[in-house]
Structures are given as C-alpha cells and as structure tokens.
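Intended use. Records such as the Peptide ABC transporter permease entry shown here are meant for training and evaluating sequence-to-structure methods. They are not intended to support clinical decisions.
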Amino acid sequence: MSDTIAPSARRRKHGGTAKPPKAPKAASLWSDAWHDLRHRPLFIGSAVLIAAILVIAAFPGLFTSVDPLNAASCDLAKARQPMSGAHFFGTDNLGCDVYARTLYGARNSIVVGLSTTIVTAVVGGLVGLVAGFKGGAVDTLFSRITEIFFAIPSILGALLILAVFRTGNVWTVTLALAVLAWPMTFRIMRAAVITAKSQDYVVAARALGASAPRIMFRHILPNAVAPVIVVSTINLGTFIAAEAGLSFLGVGLRSPDISWGLMISDARERFLEAPAPLLFPALFLSLTVLAFIMLGDAVRDALDPKLR
C-alpha cells in the first residue's frame, strides 16, 4: 500500500473540506486610480494642504480668539501695526487683526469655490450627458447655446451680472460665475459621452432592451464622469481666484463680509507702509489655488492610463 495519501482522503482524515481560494477582486478604473494616487507625493501634499484649509474655513474659532465679524475687535488707534505676539500678522488700516480676518476670510472664498464647482458640474454634466446621448437637433441646440456663452468675456460677463443684482454676497457671486462656467463642463461631458456611447457595453445594453435613462445613468455616466471630475477639481481653485478678483474690483463680496480678495483690495493703498495686510491673504489665496490645481493634476494623471 502506498504511503501517498490522495488530497481528498487527506481532507477527510483531518475533517472538513478545504476552502476554495478567494477570487481576486475585479480591477476598475477607480480602484486603480486610488491605488495610484496613494503613492503620489503631489496628491498627498495637496490633499493635506486642502484639508488644513477646509478645517480653517469650517472652524476658524479654533485658531484665534478674536472675532473679526465683531466691530469692537478693531481699534483704529492700533492701525497698521507690525507683526507681534498680540497680532501675528499685524493690523490693517482699521486696526483689525489681520490674522483673524485671514482665517475667517477662508470660509467665504471656499464656499464660493465649492458652490460654483457643484453647480457647474451638475448643470453642465447633465446637459452634456443628454446632448451627447441624444445627438441630432438636441445636441445642435445646446451646442449653439454654449457657443453664445463662450463668446462672452468671463470677467466682463460677471461684472454685468453682479451690476444687475446691485449687491455682492456669496450666492450672487456664485451665480455670476456658474452662469458663465457651465458650458466648459458641458463640452467635456458631451465629448466623453459621445465616445462612451459607441462602446460594446452600451451596444449590448441596447440589445438587451435597457431604457434610455438606464443606459445614460447606469452605463455611460460612470464611464464618462472622470474628465468632469478632473476639470472640476482644477476649476475649484480657479473659481476661488475669480471671486478674489471680483471682490478686488469692488463688485464681489463687500463689507462686512470678509474674503481674501476684499482684504487685498482694502490693503493695496497702504501697501508700502503696511505690507502684511496684503501679503498674508494673498499668500493664503495663492496656496489654496495652487493646492487645488495640483490635486486636479494628480487626479488627471491617475485617471488617465496613458499617463501612468
């Protein structure tokens, strides 16, 4: 009798049956992209910086005991003081603490950027999805409408819209920027949908009798949304800079609201005498815009297999 025991007999001898090996998880674009992003220093650095800015914008009171929204916190007798232990970034022309105003100014700038990004991504994405999927007269109509918006200079158009409202706050600035920015998202989504709808999995879904909404939202949208995510991430930083530009020109946010652009506008006249009230909000603005642009570049490289 042979000393070799068959595998099945060995399992019976030790009791129980061997568990079948686990099937490997199916790879996907998003899982591969996340695995790639976790090893990119550019993504990690920009994500940490953005997380810090978001925490400051959401909870500025954690980092300063001064409330710049309270007029009593400003002392005109202490105007344009240099940096000190009492005022880390010095004081502005009205004797307000620049450090506290810079931290509180992050909130409005971030809210405008996020709100505009969400509106443009949703509106432009949905319209681009429908136009690219339907084609024909629907596609032609929306394409001609977007060409009208592209013909309007962005800054000039925003100035006109804000002049109509005669008031500058977070929501009017968001509306002015979103009205002029959604056509870009539309074009990107439309091009991605036109490419995706000719793929085999869409043809198979049609052959199986799937409805048009199911094909659009179940099969095409998940495979066409990646370029929109990349552009929206980069645009978020652009919208923050645009809000600062409009506030600097005097048509964006206005006092008593606080934003980085408004602080830069207020400090420019006495810049040579007191540079800190302009330099610190400008530094925070530049770092925020740069962080979102770097994040968008990292996401773009991770989602595009050709760049890996």
